[in-house]
Amino acid sequence: MAETRALTTRAADFSAWYNELIARAQLADYSPVRGCMVIRPNGYAIWEEMQRALDQMFKDTGHQNAYFPLFIPQSFLSREAEHVEGFAPETAVVTHGGGKELEEPLVVRPTSETIIYAMYAKWIQSYRDLPLLINQWANVVRWEMRTRLFLRTTEFLWQEGHTAHATEAEAEEETRKMLGVYRTFMEEWMAMPVVTGRKTDSERFAGALRTYSCEAMMQDNKALQAGTSHNLGQNFARAFEVTFQTAAGGLDHVWNTSWGVSTRLVGALIMTHGDDAGLVCPPRLAQYQVVVVPIYKSDEERARVMETCDRLKRELSAARIRVHVDAREGTKPGAKYYEWEGRGVPLRLELGPRDVAAGSVMLARRTGGKKEPLPMEGLVATLESAMERMHTELLEASRARREAHSIRGVTKPQFIEFIEGDGGFAYGGFCGSGDCEAEIKEQTKATIRVLPDEEFRSLVAPTTCMWCGTPSVAEAVWSRAY
Amino acid sequence: MAETRALTTRAADFSAWYNELIARAQLADYSPVRGCMVIRPNGYAIWEEMQRALDQMFKDTGHQNAYFPLFIPQSFLSREAEHVEGFAPETAVVTHGGGKELEEPLVVRPTSETIIYAMYAKWIQSYRDLPLLINQWANVVRWEMRTRLFLRTTEFLWQEGHTAHATEAEAEEETRKMLGVYRTFMEEWMAMPVVTGRKTDSERFAGALRTYSCEAMMQDNKALQAGTSHNLGQNFARAFEVTFQTAAGGLDHVWNTSWGVSTRLVGALIMTHGDDAGLVCPPRLAQYQVVVVPIYKSDEERARVMETCDRLKRELSAARIRVHVDAREGTKPGAKYYEWEGRGVPLRLELGPRDVAAGSVMLARRTGGKKEPLPMEGLVATLESAMERMHTELLEASRARREAHSIRGVTKPQFIEFIEGDGGFAYGGFCGSGDCEAEIKEQTKATIRVLPDEEFRSLVAPTTCMWCGTPSVAEAVWSRAY
């Protein structure tokens, strides 16, 4: 049944808009299991395209995939003190298996450092076994009280990279390299600009030495942590006794990194590009980049039009354009336009008998501009360049929006007004004190997203903490966040 | 460290050979979690190739991927009476989440019929929503007391297709179609011949109307159930109230099918083709189809040889041959040959300064024949045809081996001698009685693998049950099995 009621607008209620869009585009659904979502085919197709692109980037940087157990003995989690403190409160615990109570309860993995480094201890003997560069695509579970589709669910899908190195410098290089891979993916595939930088101690991954993050700004001006990369130092190597014989003949603990992105990225994509008509999918990640809608009144017209549609499909497919011909009978073209618009398909081609006769086709772009007739001749190149332009425009528009909602060199009163107004990214000096950070969070709900990397820093470095006025140790980016 | 001890031979101890092969080729490892395995990169790469091929076949037959929750409320499992009886005893149960005891325990999915059909009840309204053709790639958990790497583990990876149809005939057609897809995959990708047919009631999926299976014979002459496809009738539709408005305006329950294959296929591949030197990977599923080993004594030679290796890699990659240049320093060519042989790489190219000068390269095939020099000219075509031939030979050899260990028209004494001797597939008449079936299983450990499809049946149909002598209702294939 075609749903034709307009979505709540983003301006009226961003959160309602988000939920309605997901329902309309059939991206996901609530399940009967508390906190768990169902990713429907339309949403899963976006995740598959994301996986395909990321997986290739991981392999191009020398990583291999593997698979480790879903269950982790409860005692493993406790071996790294910070780690257990961070994750134990949100675990799901299996206490019974095969009809019997287990001797030791098993935790459903919230992340896999412990079980993976327990295996690395077996596999790594010598510096010749390093670096060990492994990635896993998996489901993980973190018990959440307040859930939102894609953004925060008890179970989610992700990838987690886990590497082991012979030196601290190599581990740091890997941590930064994978942050760069994430940034490239977010910009070049998702058309989503991010600010990169280091997390403060209070936002660090439980058990890491340093955590780096990619932070994106959603259309409600809130930040979303889109991907993180952790330098774990030797913390887990010590906890799991992952040692290796060095080239010089000594024995040392390995240096580890871990890094991950999740199905949360689908939520980020929606909130970065969606509009009041529905999803806007960046072309490189769209399941269908082009949808062709045939228009006809009689069987005779249908035959002629469908013949051209089929030819179009062959030509575009041969050029590796992902194309779908919507040949459903009993659904009017207008209803089809409406549905594909809601699902965010970048380009729509409308084809009727007159177009066939004229050797042309009507193009409608998802992100505006008038419909325009295109000659069939050279269509592949025209569509490819339309998609390239769309990608660039989405990226540029998002970046311009982010900059329009960023404020630099804030004072405390400016900061409060900004955060409690429309919000966005506030750049200012930070004294480095966790207490000061906690006070800001308590009073404004804003957190330090990152201590930004050099290219994102303000031209004039702040000298004092924007909140407490003592000397600044680093510039920080504050925002309310998902 | 290079392991150079020979594997236990298949003839000496098939089971030891299997375990040693997996360790040597680094395909998988035991984990500290009872019954759970780690799939190492070399093993996971085979699974990835399997996934790639199967996923394309599913999509080509109109299916889409989606993702459903890992957890299933315990009460859901009970709604279909046979289903709960079949699966409840082997479930892992989550009783605590987020630090609290749950009101209703959650089962870690052993299979997803219940949670998926609960969602279908929401999504399906009318005949226009049918057929609904969805597949899921996921991990599942079945508590196993005796586990074997790949073949039987508490957690395993699989795909499960779940479809809903308007008529019984369509559901039956889908069930058979997907069995055919599995058979095609097993023959054309795994080079593993299978006997297809229907399971008896005692071996039917818990909750299904009819179960069909692909049965392969391993090198120890035991059967391995490699893939199953179930016609679920309206059993789950009734349990979960999945109804739809028919074209005629009435209300009916949908007709469901489900079908799955798992990482068990990696075990099947090992036991179908492996030899006493290690894994033999059918070329279409090999991570690396061709490995190039450079041979040199001096830096000057190395430079010349590596230049040619790199050119070879570009040429073969451009032709979509998966090629790896093993440029490791400090490892001798002989050690590399040994390692790649153990990992089952179909073709190995050896390249030294003399080969470079002669414009040739030395080819070694994993499955025998002498090494032979090949001209660089036309190498792509030569390698492609070598792989095609290898695929065909593996398939034919496996089929010949199966037929050599099959016996038809057995009498009871012949059957007992055959099963308690070398074993294999015994074809004979079956009276249709579950009691008779159970007695045979108890006395010989042999089970009916399938009531074979027509093309596998004997030319002369049996008239009496090979065991009890009463009239036969169908020909059956018995074997001991994994």
Please, could you describe this protein's structure?
2 copies of one chain form a homodimer. Chain A is of the alpha+beta class. Chain A has 3 domains: 14-273, Bira Bifunctional Protein, Domain 2 (BirA Bifunctional Protein, domain 2), CATH 3.30.930.10; 288-385, 3-Layer(aba) Sandwich (Rossmann fold); 406-479, C-terminal domain of ProRS (Translation Initiation Factor IF3, 2-Layer Sandwich). Helices cover 35% and strands 26% of the residues of chain A. Chain A is built from 14 helices and 23 strands. The first copy, chain A, has helices spanning 14-24, 41-60, 74-77, 81-87, 113-123, 168-188, 235-239, 264-273, 299-318, 333-342, 353-358, 379-404, 412-420, 434-444, and strands spanning 28-30, 37-39, 64-65, 71-73, 92-97, 100-108, 132-141, 155-165, 195-198, 210-217, 223-233, 243-245, 251-253, 255-262, 290-294, 323-325, 347-351, 360-365, 372-375, 406-407, 425-430, 447-452, 474-479. An 11-stranded mixed sheet of chain A has the order 3-7-8-14-11-10-9-22-23-21-20, with helices on both faces. In chain A, helix 9 links the parallel strand 15 and strand 16. In chain A, helix 2 (41-60) crosses helix 6 (168-188). The first copy, chain A, is globular. The mean pLDDT of chain A is 96. Strand 5 (92-97) of chain A pairs antiparallel with strand 5 of chain B.
The parts of chain A where pLDDT drops under 50 for at least 5 residues are none
Architecture of the largest domain in chain A, according to CATH?
2-Layer Sandwich
Q: Please state the average pLDDT score of chain A.
A: 96
Number of domains of chain A: 3
What amount of the residues of chain A lies in strands? 25-35%
CATH topology of the largest domain in chain A: BirA Bifunctional Protein, domain 2
Q: What's the helix count of chain A?
A: 14
Describe the strand arrangement of the main beta sheet of chain A, using strand numbers: 3-7-8-14-11-10-9-22-23-21-20
Shape of chain A: globular
Kindly report how far apart the N and C termini of chain A lie: 33 Å
Broad CATH class of the largest domain in chain A: Alpha Beta
- Helicity of chain A, as a percent range: 25-40%
Oligomer designation: homodimer
- Overall strand count of chain A: 23
- Tell me the major beta sheet of chain A: 11 strands, mixed
Structural class of chain A: alpha+beta
What is the name of the CATH superfamily of the largest domain in chain A?
Bira Bifunctional Protein, Domain 2
Biggest chain-to-chain interface with counts = A-B, 59 and 59 residues
